[in-house]
Amino acid sequence: MKKTKMKAVLGIAMAMAMTVSSLTACGGGSKETKAATEAATETAKETTAAAEEETKAAAEAKIDLPEMATPDEWVSRFEDVSPTAVDDFEVTDDQVAKIKDAGLTAALCMHTSGESFSAAVIAGAEKACEELGIEIVATTDAQWDSDELSKNIDSVMAKNPDIIVLCQIDVEAMTDQIKDYAEQGVSFAFFDNINSHLDADDYASLVTTDTYGAGVEAAKILAQQLNGEGQIAMFTWATPNLGNLARSQGFRDYIEANFPNIEIATEEFYTDASDCASLADAVFAKYPDIDGAFGQWDVPAEGVISSAQGNGLSNDFVVTCVDLGYNVARLMAEDGMVKGIGAQQPYKDGYYSIYAGALDAVGEEVPKMILIDPVSVTKENLEEAWPIIYDEDLPSDIQSLLK
Predict the structure, then answer these.
(1) Does residue 218 sit within a domain?
(2) Does the pTM exceed 0.70?
């Protein structure tokens, strides 16, 4: 409707311009003709300018974006645990001195280390260890393989760490292993995800962004971009990882509760993020008029984008996800398909996981869950949001795209 109206107004302007040309050709340059020409030209300019302003205003029009709280089951993730907001988590000078005197060691057992998220977790953990005088004795990479992660934990135990910082890939797989090592005195500090089969004395704390809330923020961005209507697809990791499932649930709940004219045409499930490009190929073949997609984190979203580009879709196709990786941030800056992201704060995940594990290791009380707010990131606030998420400036090459 808006495009048709714009064409009609521009058509009037063009007709006026043609009239001006005709008057000039036939009038032999008289004063009356010249005045008429100038008047018609000015009217045409004003009409065109008005049409452009109307189109710009329509493009910038905001739709109503209701707030949605995270339900308890997606916050606590296990019974009898009330989250503590990260801003309310305090460590005293005496506690810091106690930690330093203990001469603690830590191991970082990463689910993967090849993404911006993981690099930020490691950087945050390293900073906290530097502040507390904790030696990192091992940093491992499971490359998204739950069995490999379990082997890595066994391996680092040979170094007798006091603290293990860990993101469980499969929440069912390592219950007994973690319980056994916890009984031996290891303080487990989990980030992003936890196993609900554990007891309170099996771990120090879970430090996590409100990932349900991050999914909601991603849904708001997509709904805004589609002006509240269209057809979309979701891409969700099939592994029983509660942190990841929460973000998809938040996205889905927000769209279904608030935007009945946005149809979730399909939800595709994958076990390997690299499968998303081929999954998306099938989606685009079945739903050729699809308008947008939610990728559960940045790597699946990149696969969807690769497929969309290969299928000839323009940058009007809207992609959103959770996690602000370098590649999706760059796409956002250059007005690509990524229009915005509901971002976690991985640097804080790593930083406060070390503090939580260290307090537990020296016998101090620790909140069983430390909750961090997600950050809604668009091109307009990218430069300000990046330091909040990564504790460093936005890379200069991305900054240059914002000028």
Answers:
(1) yes
(2) yes
